[in-house]
Specification:
Elements (H helix, E strand, L loop, with lengths): L8 E7 L12 E7 L7 E10 L3 H5 L20 E8 L9 E4 L6 E5 L4 E2 L16 H13 L7 E4 L7 H10 L4 E6 L2 H9 L5 E4 L5 H8 L4 E6 L3 H10 E9 L20 H5 L2 E4 L9 H13 L7 E5 L4 H9 L6 E5 L3
Parallel strand pairs: 8-9, 8-11, 9-10, 11-12, 12-13, 14-15
Antiparallel strand pairs: 1-2, 3-4, 3-6, 3-15, 4-5, 5-7
Helix pairs in contact: 2-3, 2-8, 5-6
Length: about 350
């Protein structure tokens, strides 16, 4: 079963050079590629939205990591959601909405077992790349499972206006945190955290030392720190954490483009006396929470108790600019690229 309107070629982004420090547009190329019909067990998807995420920066380096590096002069990949336009797979029909891992391209040919059908009536398709997708599960599992959050805990979130951070703070509030504090990189984002997301306090990390601003915002200390930034933020959080505090090390965006090792944190000795737990997390370890997460978060969205923002860039031509903008904090909420209506 196939759609007659499938073009002969589609565009896809290739990594053409390994960035040194900050990536530049010259490290990427948008190229035409043949659109192939599916074989047995395969589907062809016209991508509607693709995701740009901080972890993709690490994949541009040729180093061993938890995700294989991007190959030069090959299409990059990442989260995407779209509609099936041709199917040779049982259970997948033309028009089905699916979530899969072959983003950075207009058309994706993949084995059907690597796609998950999503309910396009339940939420906008782009939400399955954000609040109902990988960033949402990261926030939910990171706070509740890795961070062992319990009612009454005081929570500090860095990068709190980003795709993950804004959800962490709101989930903490919905689950009974005694205080929720966030940091962000502009006055507008700080205002949004307090006025729209319900944080008790927030500060602009560019306005002064993080440790000083955190001490004012959380005078009784912090029980759970959700770290999206690393560096100075992690050092400040260690200093502010109460005995038996937990730090969820989710990201270190402040360091992703550094060519020198970070200076901070310099106060790790406090981990001993305070009996702190610093634990790294990867969302792939928490697939067992998927159903519980989807049901609970979808319910909060439906009844308006959870606010969700996304920054949408139109057209595949803008995908690299969207990625670079996300690394610099140009987004509020999840950054996605709209490829088709």
């Amino acid at each position: 079963m196939a759609d007659q309107a499938i073009p002969a070629t589609g565009r896809e982004w290739h990594l053409t050079a390994r960035p040194q420090g900050w990536p530049t547009p010259e490290d990427f190329a948008l190229r035409e590629a043949p659109v192939q019909q599916p074989g047995p067990g395969q589907i062809l998807v016209r991508n509607a939205y693709m995701s740009v995420d901080p972890y993709m920066r690490g994949r541009m380096n040729d180093v061993k990591s938890y995700v294989p590096p991007f190959q030069l002069d090959r299409p990059m990949d990442g989260g995407a959601v779209g509609r099936v336009v041709a199917s040779q797979a049982e259970g997948f029909a033309v028009g089905d909405a699916v979530l899969h891992g072959l983003g950075w391209r207009e058309y994706a040919l993949l084995d059907a077992e690597r796609a998950v059908k999503v309910d396009a009536d339940a939420a906008p398709l782009s939400y399955f790349l954000g609040v109902l997708g990988m960033p949402g599960l990261t926030a939910y599992a990171g706070l509740l499972e890795v961070g062992s959050f319990k009612e009454g805990d005081a929570v500090f979130v860095s990068g709190a206006a980003g795709a993950v951070g804004g959800l962490v703070g709101q989930i903490a509030r919905l689950k009974g945190a005694s205080r929720v504090v966030g940091s962000a990189g502009s006055a507008e984002k700080v205002a949004k955290l307090v006025d729209e997301y319900g944080f008790d306090d927030a500060f602009n990390y560019k306005d002064g030392p993080v440790a000083e601003q955190l001490a004012k915002a959380a005078p009784d200390g912090v029980d759970v720190y959700f770290d999206n930034v690393g560096g100075e933020h992690l050092e400040a959080a260690i200093g502010a954490m109460n005995v038996h505090g937990r730090a969820v090390l989710c990201g270190a965006i402040a360091q992703y483009n550094d060519t020198e090792p970070p200076a901070a944190p310099r106060n790790l000795v406090q981990v001993i006396g305070k009996r702190l737990r610093l634990q790294g997390m990867l969302v792939a370890d928490h697939a067992g929470l998927q159903q519980q997460f989807t049901e609970e978060v979808a319910g909060w969205l439906r009844d308006g108790r959870l606010r969700y923002d996304e920054t949408v860039v139109d057209g595949i031509d803008g995908a690299v600019d969207a990625f670079l903008g996300m690394l610099r904090g140009a987004n509020t909420g999840k950054m996605v690229v709209r490829l088709a209506g």
